[in-house]
Design a protein that fits this description.
Helix content is 48%, strand content 9%. It is of the alpha/beta class. Strands 1, 2, 3, 4, 5, 6, 7, 8 and 9 form a 9-stranded parallel sheet that branches. α6 packs across α7. The chain is globular and about 60 Å long. It starts with 9 loop residues before the first helix and ends in an 8-residue tail after the last helix. Bound molecules: S-adenosylmethionine. The site of S-adenosylmethionine has 21 residues, from loops.
């Protein structure tokens, strides 16, 4: 098997020998200041880095250079994403699953968790609870089970979610995180109006992948790894990739992740829309210590910084698997989207108290959405509930060109402010409202075009008067 970025075969575009050689090259050059300087110089052009170059930065051992890496990541984040952070919540539809994933409590052999699948009435209840928190963007999650969770069930749920309009609430973007499937099913998801299709690779190491997925359809590494190509063939041009850090060596995963991004760009002309960086967490019968690849918070943050530098146009997502402390640190280095107020159990949002019996993993950030919004603003980030891009047809390469042209500041920035205003009026506590109004006033001035500033001011008044859903 030879490495070939354009191949459609998993083992050629995620090539084991190429990854091992990359990791070796990075290790050999971790103190090669001349090379590191050259790579940093290239990175400053903000056009990204290859997996080899980025792996050298990840391995870099020199404190001064590591600080340069962090500073550059922070600067690139500011240039492309400003101080906006997009908010979303996961919605668990069903924990029925036929796979045997060793790290996930939903695995088939786990007989001591109740199995639950939401009816459409229950989906509606969850959506109302999520709308009442202020959410506009969801990521739906389900185990893999062709009998209990067929594609028709997922499509029904998407329809229900988009149909619910409770008070001023609405879910305007549904991202989908379900198992690898066929081109035909991806086409159906696209036709249902989904935002991003998300699928974590879990690990790029084929040998370990097969051990970690001993049974069920997910055992097939090639089918799983080639899923994003099928999704693109089915017309979905916003795809989200990720690995579950802790399962395998992080250096291997990092190179694999970037090779996957390079492959999508080379074949489809558009890289991944987002990269997620989940870490394995304790759950029902899962003890993360059984996988001895856990990584320190410090290295985790360094990974995020190097991803930011390597793929400047790709959004980065961090979930409530991480503590508020880690989230605070990592957001600064390049994250553009976070979940807030999450419940990872099936039917969790409609319950008064957080249920634990069907939780997919322990949540480490238990704050409410209002508390997360309040915290972000105190850290000088604009919480954004914007969902405009895909609704305006700015997906795939059209989104990327918006990023590259710098027009994002005339578009995403005002959209963030207008959706924040909606949140403040409809859902925020008094304190959040107070901080938010001051933030909007201050941030309007950072919209480059005066004409756009003027339109935003007019629309903010209209939002005060009850209108909703303005967007550029
Ligand atoms: N079932 C779908 C699949 O097979 O891809 C995806 C949905 S699953 C609910 C979402 C993700 O949760 C998985 O891809 C995995 O990376 C992550 N996950 C599973 N167990 C976890 C654990 N114990 N801690 C943290 N994340 C976990």
């Amino acid at each position: 098997m030879e490495y070939n970025v354009k191949s459609m075969k998993a083992e050629e575009f995620i090539n084991d020998a190429e990854i091992l050689d990359t990791v070796k090259y990075a290790e050999e050059n971790k103190n090669n200041i001349e090379l590191i300087d050259k790579i940093l110089e290239k990175a400053r052009l903000r056009k990204g880095l290859s997996h080899r170059e980025a792996s050298v930065l990840l391995a870099c051992d020199n404190e001064e250079k590591i600080n340069e890496i962090y500073d550059l990541a922070e600067q690139i984040k500011k240039d492309f994403y400003g101080n906006r952070i997009v908010l979303f919540a996961p919605l668990y539809l069903s924990n029925y699953c036929v796979n045997g994933c060793l790290y996930c409590p939903y695995h088939l052999k786990n007989k001591h968790i109740p199995r639950k699948k939401l009816t459409q009435e229950e989906v509606a209840k969850e959506v109302i609870a999520l709308q009442d928190m202020g959410h506009k963007r969801l990521a739906i999650e389900a185990g893999e089970d062709p009998v209990n969770n067929p594609i028709e069930y997922i499509l029904d749920c998407i329809k229900t979610i988009y149909s619910i309009k409770h008070k001023n609430g609405a879910i305007r973007r549904v991202n989908v995180n379900i198992a690898a499937t066929t081109v035909e099913n991806y086409r159906k998801l696209k036709d249902a109006g989904i935002g991003t299709y998300i699928l974590f690779q879990e690990t790029y190491n084929k040998k370990n992948y097969e051990i970690l997925h001993p049974t069920g359809p997910k055992h097939n590494y090639d089918y799983h790894t080639e899923a994003m190509d099928r999704a693109m063939e089915g017309g979905i041009d916003d795809v989200g990739i990720g690995v579950l850090f802790g399962l395998d060596n992080y250096k291997y995963e990092f190179a694999g992740l970037l090779m996957h991004a390079e492959h999508l760009e080379a074949v489809h002309g558009v890289g991944p829309h987002t990269i997620s960086v989940p870490r394995v967490k304790p759950a029902d019968d899962i003890d993360p210590n059984e996988f001895d690849n856990s990584l320190s918070d410090e290295m985790f943050c360094k990974i995020a910084a190097c991803i930011r530098i390597a793929v400047p146009y790709t959004g980065m997502i961090i979930s409530t698997r991480e503590t508020p402390e880690v989230r605070a640190k990592i957001i600064r280095l390049g994250v553009s989207q976070i979940s807030g107020g999450s419940r990872t159990s099936v039917g969790g949002y409609a319950e008064e108290e957080r249920p634990h019996d069907t939780e997919q993993f322990d949540v480490s950030d238990n704050r409410t959405l209002d508390e997360v919004v309040n915290w972000l603003m105190r850290e000088d980030y604009i919480p954004s509930f914007c969902t405009a891009c895909y609704r305006e047809g700015r997906t795939g390469d059209r989104f990327m060109s918006l990023c590259k042209s710098g027009q994002i500041q005339n578009c995403c920035h005002p959209n963030a402010l207008m959706t924040l205003k909606e949140f403040l009026i409809d859902y925020a506590s008094e304190d959040t409202k107070r901080i938010g109004e001051a933030m909007i006033e201050k941030e309007i001035k950072n919209i480059p075009k005066e004409k756009v500033q003027q339109i935003v001011r007019e629309r903010l008044v209209k939002i005060e008067n009850g209108d909703r859903d303005f967007r550029f």
